[in-house]
Design a protein that fits this description.
Distance between the termini of chain B: 9 Å
Distance between the termini of chain A: 16 Å
Radius of gyration of chain A: 19 Å
Number of strands of chain B: 2
Largest sheet of chain A: none
Oligomer: heterodimer
Helix content of chain B: over 70%
Structural class of chain B: mainly alpha
Shape of chain A: globular
Largest interface: A-B, 49 and 46 residues
Structural class of chain A: mainly alpha
Number of helices of chain A: 11
Helix content of chain A: over 70%
Largest sheet of chain B: 2 strands, antiparallel
Order of helices and strands of chain A: HHHHHHHHHHH
Order of helices and strands of chain B: HHHHHEEHHHHHHHHHHHH
Strand order of the largest sheet of chain B: 1-2
Radius of gyration of chain B: 19 Å
Chain lengths: 258, 324
């Protein structure tokens, strides 16, 4: 599967999510459902790699994307007072998307997936709550927090459908992308909860930058190994490298033999 | 006091409700101290637990199995709790049931995570039940409740909305979840379809009456009794039944219009509350609530006589007469 086909499938999934959660007022007055492209990519990775992909899996993948959209919507709720109409509807958009996730899975009688996703939502909520707790987190704990937030829902999907052999690659890659975003935010002087957690133990921006840079380097190496370990289609390997660690491509080109 | 009176009505269910209370506490147990605190804060503020009560009472019309019924009753109460935490963010509410709301004690983000956490716990629990029908009913109810809330925001500050708009909104916002509580209690207990349908309709009519009374009490009860400022609905732009009736008087209409969507003083708030309270709107709204109560009671006539029907009847009467 080439890059264009992959992109087209991701767009098609985005459209399916949009259709599934369509609601006139929410469409008009909120940002609408949003799911990071990288998360959609890893949700569809087994399909891209030619795994057996049933309608049930497609529908299950769609619900995972909807849950990501629900949680993202709630992340967008700010503290400003008084709360605006858009913010009020953003709260309800998240609740509405959660209802849709449950309904879609209930309709397809996939109750086990309802349970798996609910457990993953609990884990994600617990980790996000830690942003507001006074307890100090060591960098390794911050990493665990970020990993759960990025990957718990995807892991639920992989476990449900027997795709756990992609777990390591997915976790490393989404963490890599997250750290790249955090580094960017740090350089731009922007606030992020993850950076704030890091600052409690690493204190200075320079130390955080250095920690993130080192970690990105090491994660990059791990990703190359994981890509080679996974039995991925050649085109897919290249797409993955281009998307996740483009700056390393020239240094370590992949051959057709992997 | 009123809550105690209500609890006396279903004192037969005391051991079961205590057990449900314990399960609610267990359900919100979290490895996050913050989520644990916030959820317990909400749980300990109390509540009428009307949804679990209706699940249990409906269960008495079939093969009453408390363990099975708890699997429905606990998630339904959790769903209700999750919606309250998020509602307080939407309404910017500082106080609920006389205690600071989660968003006011912590912040909006914590309230969002708490609501997501509690809802997920509810779904995690309800999946212990395999019946697709149960999930079909509950998931549709959840969506309709959200639609009701979305419409409520759309209709905020719209003094020109119709009675039909109001009734459709409260149906989704309140009546459906109570209706589903009755229906799900019946279904998990294996009642026949006809009984489940009567119970569903009973819950729906009671839910409508309950919400109308709630909307009346916002004007007739005191700040202390309500555990929040009287007239909060109007201040938040929620146009409820007493307002819809009161606006028919041109003078009151003008006063409402002049003060809608404004940061009004406490004095002004109390003046508006007093005006509505002393108008005929309250009686008219009560009559509407009574009509729903009568319909609810009629549904009970179709059900087998027994202690459950008797308690449901008592609760219906209580709802019609409650003071706050």
């Amino acid at each position: 599967m080439n890059g264009q086909q992959i992109q087209s499938k991701i767009i098609s999934m985005e459209i399916d999510v949009l259709k599934a959660v369509r609601q006139r007022t929410l469409d008009q007055l909120t940002e609408g459902p949003f799911v990071k492209e990288a998360r959609l990519f890893f949700l569809l990775l087994p399909f891209f790699n030619g795994e057996q992909w049933s309608d049930k899996m497609e529908s299950s993948a769609r619900t995972v994307a909807i849950v990501y959209a629900a949680l993202h919507s709630h992340d967008r709720v700010r503290e400003e007072m008084p709360i605006s109409k858009e913010q009020q509807l953003t709260v309800l958009a998240g609740d509405f998307y959660s209802g849709i996730y449950y309904q879609l899975l209930a309709e397809s009688k996939n109750i086990e997936m309802v349970q798996k996703l609910a457990t993953a939502i609990i884990q994600v909520s617990e980790k996000k709550a830690s942003f507001h707790e006074p307890a100090l987190q060591q960098p390794e704990q911050v990493e665990e927090t970020a990993t759960v937030i990025e990957t718990a829902l995807l892991n639920a999907f992989y476990e449900e459908n027997g795709f756990t052999h992609y777990k390591q690659l997915m976790e490393q890659s989404l963490l890599y992308i997250r750290y790249t975003e955090e580094l960017e935010a740090l350089k731009n002087g922007e606030f992020s909860h993850i950076l704030r957690l890091f600052s409690e133990t690493l204190i200075q921006s320079a130390f955080i930058e250095s920690w993130l840079t080192d970690r990105l380097e090491s994660l990059g190496n791990d990703i190359v190994v994981s890509i080679n370990d996974c039995e991925l289609d050649f085109e897919l390997k290249n797409v993955l490298l281009h998307q996740i660690i483009p700056h390393r491509l020239s240094a370590e080109p992949l051959t057709r033999e992997g | 006091m009123e809550k105690m009176k209500l609890k006396l009505l279903y004192s037969d269910l005391k051991p079961e409700l205590e057990s449900i209370e314990k399960e609610l506490e267990q359900a919100v147990d979290s490895e996050s101290l913050l989520l644990n605190d916030a959820s317990l804060h909400l749980l300990q503020a109390g509540g009428k637990r009307i949804r679990p009560v209706f699940v249990l009472l409906a269960g008495k019309f079939g093969d009453y199995d408390i363990e099975l019924l708890k699997r429905v009753a606990v998630p339904l109460e959790l769903i209700h709790m999750a919606s309250l935490v998020h509602d307080d963010v939407i309404d910017d509410s500082e106080i609920r049931r006389g205690r600071p709301t989660v968003k006011s004690e912590w912040n909006n983000s914590v309230a969002m995570y708490t609501g997501d956490f509690i809802l997920a716990r509810a779904l995690e629990r309800i999946t212990e039940i395999e019946s697709p029908r149960i999930h079909d009913i509950l998931s549709k109810t959840l969506i309709e409740v959200c639609r009701g809330e979305i419409i409520q925001i759309e209709h905020k500050y719209r003094l020109d909305q119709s009675l039909r708009d109001y009734l459709r909104r409260i149906k989704r916002k309140t009546a459906l979840l109570i209706s589903s509580s009755c229906e799900l209690g019946a279904l998990v207990s294996g009642t026949d379809e006809k009984t489940a349908a009567h119970l569903r309709r009973f819950g729906y009519f009671i839910g409508m009456s309950f919400q109308i009374i709630d909307d009346i009490l916002d004007f007739t009860a005191s700040d202390q009794e309500l555990g929040k400022p009287a007239g909060s609905d109007f201040i938040q732009g929620n146009i409820t039944l007493p307002i819809l009736y009161a606006r028919q008087n041109p003078e009151i209409y003008q006063m409402l219009r002049d003060n809608l969507n404004l940061d009004i003083s406490d004095e002004k708030r109390l003046e508006i509350v007093r005006t509505i309270r002393t108008s005929s709107a309250v009686d008219e709204a009560k009559r509407m609530s009574e009509r729903y109560l009568e319909k609810a009671l009629k549904e009970l006539d179709y059900l087998p006589k027994g202690s459950a029907a008797k308690t449901m009847r008592k609760i219906a009467f209580f709802i019609g007469k409650r003071k706050f």
